[in-house]
């Protein structure tokens, strides 16, 4: 019975996050841009949420989707960055097994939600430019709520199996995770037994989300571009397409690191592990930091309200 109980103790009590293997001596320096990016993400996204909540004029579909994006970015960055900084600054590398699964669930779920919200924002721009007379009747409050709930439901449904799939494994390759946070495949590499289903499931979900969402985003912009080119004056074309610039920036900020990281894994397989980990961290840090800046600079209504937060000195 004793040996049987040992065999059924399938997972370690804690995992140990190694940070960025090969660059441990630079952790303190690396933490400076990481901490700066996290601070900017917190300030920027909290400011966006405050402005949208406080100003009734901004309670429109475009800004409600932007509020969803800001909330997701806050959760996404806060899921990983505090623990990452603890690893860099205090060598606090231990994370409980269940804490690791929770971090992984939130990380991947909110990444999927962000993709869904970017798709919803593309739909918003499509209706605003291609069907302007129907904008208020199509994008109603109840529909926006349903879109938000669908984004959450899809992410939770796709990611709920992951913790249970990982919980069934024995971890005989030690507790050392060669990463800054609990990324799915980094944990799978420590497991014994047949992990093919986890590998296939992870790749299938990633491909399904990226390909499907990006395809619909591209289709939306094909229709938008066609509608813009049919406008009579050049000024009207610039104005119409100008409303899409911020959203295009957010799409590029989110999907470009994903594509680069995916290509790196396939093209540069022999690259040092820290190269892949730095790209993965860039994917986590960059969108939450840059999205508030993009929308703050390029969206007139947001920019005016941000500037209004600072009292002007009378000359």
TrEMBL record:
Q: Where would you find this protein in the cell?
A: Cell membrane; Membrane
- Gene3D superfamilies registered for this protein in UniProt: Rhodopsin 7-helix transmembrane proteins (1.20.1070.10)
Keywords assigned by UniProt, alphabetized: Cell membrane, G-protein coupled receptor, Membrane, Olfaction, Receptor, Sensory transduction, Transducer, Transmembrane, Transmembrane helix
Location of the G-protein coupled receptors family 1 profile domain = 44-295
Residue stretches spanning the membrane: 29-51, 63-89, 95-123, 135-156, 200-224, 236-255, 275-297
GO molecular function list: G protein-coupled receptor activity; olfactory receptor activity
**What family does the entry list?**
Belongs to the G-protein coupled receptor 1 family.
What is the role of this chain?
Odorant receptor.
Q: What is this protein called?
A: Olfactory receptor
**Organism of this sequence:** Neovison vison (American mink)
Question: Its gene?
Answer: LOC122914095
């Amino acid at each position: 019975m004793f040996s049987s109980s040992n065999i059924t103790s399938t997972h370690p009590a804690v995992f140990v996050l190694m940070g960025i293997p090969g660059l441990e001596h630079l952790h303190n320096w690396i933490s400076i841009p990481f901490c700066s990016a996290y601070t900017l993400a917190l300030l920027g996204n909290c400011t966006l949420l405050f402005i949208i909540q406080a100003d009734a004029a901004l309670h429109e579909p475009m800004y409600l989707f932007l509020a969803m994006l800001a909330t997701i970015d806050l959760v996404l960055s806060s899921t990983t960055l505090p623990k990452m900084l603890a690893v860099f600054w205090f060598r606090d590398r231990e994370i409980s097994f269940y804490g690791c699964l929770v971090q992984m669930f939130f990380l991947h779920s909110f990444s999927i939600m962000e993709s869904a919200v970017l798709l919803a924002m593309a739909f918003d721009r499509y209706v605003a430019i291609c069907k302007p007379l129907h904008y208020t009747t199509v994008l109603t409050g109840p529909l926006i709520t349903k879109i938000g709930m669908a984004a959450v439901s899809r992410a939770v449904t796709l990611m709920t199996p992951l913790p249970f799939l990982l919980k069934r494994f024995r971890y005989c390759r030690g507790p050392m995770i060669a990463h800054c946070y609990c990324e799915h495949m980094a944990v799978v590499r420590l497991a014994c037994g047949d992990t093919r289903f986890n590998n296939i499931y992870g790749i299938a979900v990633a491909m399904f989300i990226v390909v499907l969402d990006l395809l619909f985003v591209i289709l939306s912009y094909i229709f938008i571009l066609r509608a813009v080119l049919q406008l009579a004056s050049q000024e009207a074309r610039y104005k119409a397409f100008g409303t899409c610039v911020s959203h295009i920036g957010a799409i590029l900020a989110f999907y470009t690191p994903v594509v680069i990281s995916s290509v790196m894994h396939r093209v540069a397989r022999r690259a040092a592990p820290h190269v892949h980990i730095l790209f993965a961290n860039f994917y986590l840090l960059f969108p939450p930091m840059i999205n508030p800046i993009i929308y703050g600079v390029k969206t007139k209504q947001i920019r005016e309200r941000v500037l209004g937060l600072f009292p002007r000195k009378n000359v």
